[in-house]
Amino acid sequence: MNKSELIKVVADVTCSKKEAGIAVNAVINAIAGALKKGGRVSLVGFGSFSVVKKAARKGRNPRTGKEIKIKAKKVPKFTPGKALKEAVR
Q1: How many independent structural domains does the chain possess?
Q2: Of 54, 48, 36, nearest to 83 (Cα)?
Q3: Cys bridge to 11: 5, 20, 46, 63, which one at CB 3.0-4.6 A?
Q4: DSSP string of 15-68, one letter each residue
């Protein structure tokens, strides 16, 4: 399912497609904003979004085999909740 399909499903259940698009975008922007500030977003039963710090490390260029430095970075992480895990089984 992609974003437009999600908007259609939300629109079928609640409101117009335009309003559903605004709502879906608002949820995505709220989650991204909280993560950008270093926060955590927990949706009980669904899962949690958080930010994980990855340390700097050495890697290899697959084309040349030459060793390269990979910078430290922050990446988003999703941990599924119990209800979501059960629903997928």
Answers
A1: 2
A2: 48
A3: 20
A4: S-HHHHHHHHHHHHHHHHHHHHTT--EEETTTEEEEEEEEPPEEEE-TTT--EE
Could you read off the pLDDT of 38-81 as tens digits, one per residue? 889 999 989 999 999 999 999 999 999 999 999 999 999 999 99
Range of the domain at 31: 1-37
Q: How far apart are CA 70 and CA 73, in angstroms?
A: 9
Tokens describing residue 46: 């669904």
Question: 60: which 2 tokens?
Answer: 């290899």
Is the domain of 85 the same as that of 48? Answer: yes
What is the pTM for the complete model shown? 0.75
